[in-house]
Amino acid sequence: MVVIPDRLFNEPFIKLIHRSRQQVILEKELSSSIFERQSYVSMYGISIVMQGQQRILEDSGKILTINPGEIGIIRKGLYTVTDILPKEKNFQSYHIFLSEQALREVLNTYGISSNQENGQGLLKFQAPDLIKEYFIFLKTINPATAYSYQIFTLKIMEFFGLLINENPSVAKQLAGLLHQPFKNLQAFMEDHFSKPLSIKDYASLTGRSESTFRREFKLKYGIAPRKWIINKRMEMAKKLLEDADFNVNEVAMEVGYDNVSHFIKAYKNVFGETPGNHQLTDPTILS
């Protein structure tokens, strides 16, 4: 699973237009399709498809299909993303990612109340007529110049102004994105403990504040969430290591560790030996 937008920055098919802690703007151009890429979108995401088709499968099973000239907006969450090339052309799309603070600033700028009921996690609208020219202009802004952050912030506000002007119902739906649906904590954690997520991420994805999540988790399981997650990951890792088809690096990735050294340390803390030694000494593993 990849964390978006962070894992996109070094991809060869990505052109970074603007990046800050509160907002990211990038262009994607693919010469081959990408199918069913499991992703954690850590910011509010806006996809504008210019060529090809993008399909976004929500964790709940809902599918959003974005065609050329359409805009898709998604809340933070777990998704499976497919990018499909058009005939004899590259796939092309633009993406804007906003932090919660940045999204609230958009709502405040346009006088939109954030006190809305839970909205849809996947939204789709027709793109404004000037959308292509809008992004062409964004690419002319030098991000290294003074006041570039302020310029990009103003242009993002303009983007939402164009969207709301063409479709006033967008305003209420944008506010609904802030309200993450309340999910069954136990079911969600059993399904997703191996994902490379922080406690803050788990809390947000289950519709809770971090303090509420920690309190409910401790009441349910009797231990802190971090310790439970590590134990579950190590149990899963041990089972995978007993399959000769998996090496240590592969197992680390499967149980949510990008850093293999951190995985080895955690495994040794739980089982008293490194995962490599377990493979060498376990008689159930065939050589």
Describe this entry's structure for a reader.
- It is a single chain.
- The chain is of the alpha+beta class.
- Helix content is 40%, strand content 24%.
- It contains eleven helices and eleven strands.
- The strands form two sheets. A six-stranded antiparallel beta sheet has the order 2-3-10-5-8-11. A five-stranded mixed beta sheet has the order 1-4-9-6-7, with no helix packed on it.
- Helix 8 (225-241) crosses helix 10 (260-271).
- The protein is globular.
- The protein starts with a strand and ends in a 6-residue tail after the last helix.
- Mean pLDDT is 91; it is low at 283-287.
Any chance you could write out the topology, listing elements then pairs?
Elements: E1 2-4, E2 14-19, E3 23-30, E4 34-41, E5 44-51, E6 53-58, E7 63-66, E8 70-74, E9 77-84, E10 91-98, H1 100-109, E11 122-126, H2 131-138, H3 148-166, H4 170-176, H5 185-192, H6 199-205, H7 210-221, H8 225-241, H9 248-254, H10 260-271, H11 275-281
Parallel strand pairs: 1-4
Antiparallel strand pairs: 2-3, 3-10, 4-9, 5-8, 5-10, 6-7, 6-9, 8-11
How do the strands of the widest beta sheet line up side by side? 2-3-10-5-8-11
Order of helices and strands: EEEEEEEEEEHEHHHHHHHHHH
Counted by DSSP, the helix tally is 11
The largest β sheet comes out as: 6 strands, antiparallel
What is the terminal separation in angstroms? 30 Å
Classify the secondary structure makeup into a structural class: alpha+beta
What is the overall pLDDT average? 91
Task: Quote the CATH topology of the largest domain.
Answer: Jelly Rolls
- How many whole angstroms does the radius of gyration measure? 21 Å
The CATH class of the largest domain is identified as: Mainly Beta
C-alpha geometry: globular
Percentage of residues in DSSP E strands: 15-25%
Helix content: 25-40%
Detail the poorly predicted runs.
283-287
- The structural domain count equals 2
Number of strands: 11
CATH architecture of the largest domain: Sandwich
